[in-house]
Request: fold
Amino acid sequence: MAGLYIHIPFCRQKCHYCNFYTVISQRYRKQFISALKHELELQKYYLENQQVNTIYFGGGTPSMLSTNEIISLIDTVSLNYNVNSDVEITLEANPDDLSSDFLRQIKNETPVNRFSIGVQSFYDDDLAYLNRIHNGKHARNAIYEALKLGFNNLTIDLIYGIPTLTNEKWKTNLQTFFDFGLPHLSSYALTVEPKTNLQVLIDKQKIAPTLEDQTVDHFEILLEQTERKGFIHYEISNFALPGYYSKHNSIYWLGGHYLGVGPSAHSFNGKTRQWNVKSMKQYCEAEIIDQIVLEKEQLTTEQQYNEYVMTSLRTSWGCDTEHIYNVFGEKYARFFTEKVEQYIRKNQIQQVKNIYKLTHAGKLFADGIAAGLFHDF
Reply:
């Protein structure tokens, strides 16, 4: 099973917390679509003819594309790849783009069958803190219109740990999500990434800083509320009703292969990892000289082991020492079982036979625990 990620970097404005590669200018738009199609053709051998089960338009703001541009890109994929007839095609979208007319065009003219809507919060003061372009009304209307047109496979993003977001407001955000009857939620802690506008504004004391205790409270509320509503916490930031896991993101978490196209996009095929240049100008010019501007590395056994530990521990499937033994060898399996004991004693990891999973308490420290289990000889 393989996935295809198409990075659309266009945005109308930059959110304060965002550290993804995005551009505001539309100057290269026509060249960019052409370059994407060209890269799809050049890279078709990367997945070694594995069946493509998912196509994911991420960003940036993919909902800024026209239906004709979306169709053109999907057609290029269909011509060059072994695409599953039941392929999951996800379009990330900002709420303000999801008018009834746009949604109707997507429904009637494209094979897109899943939306990931960047709501973040239903409260305007939270959205202003984040520098989001939409408001709470846009968010509610977008979900309502998508459901009305029959888009039932929807997920939204909600951010917690925003200084303006009280516990009661956070509970209301979650209840609004539940009231819509949506089958999937992605929820992330607000993180102050280096060199983002958020870091600059906090350092200059122009906006309130994030508070660790508040973030922990919100995470506890999130786990409690989603469990009560029957959602499966299948990845540290993702919750789904049975049958509605993100097929695309599950490829990342379960060690599957994926190809990323577009500036800054990453790819992995089990043997190598590669990443494209973070420059719209360079990316578009590469088409002219018939090459892809990227960096590539051959993954060592140690790197592959560390990645498996990091991704598997974030999921409800957990980390399997039998898999470690079979794929990486006895040395790595023994190393893991020795190192993991400290986290079992702290009740941060639980063991059932050869499967190790984060406990409720461990989920608060997922990244740190994974790092503690990395092999660095």
Observations:
- The chain has two domains: 2-253, 301-372.
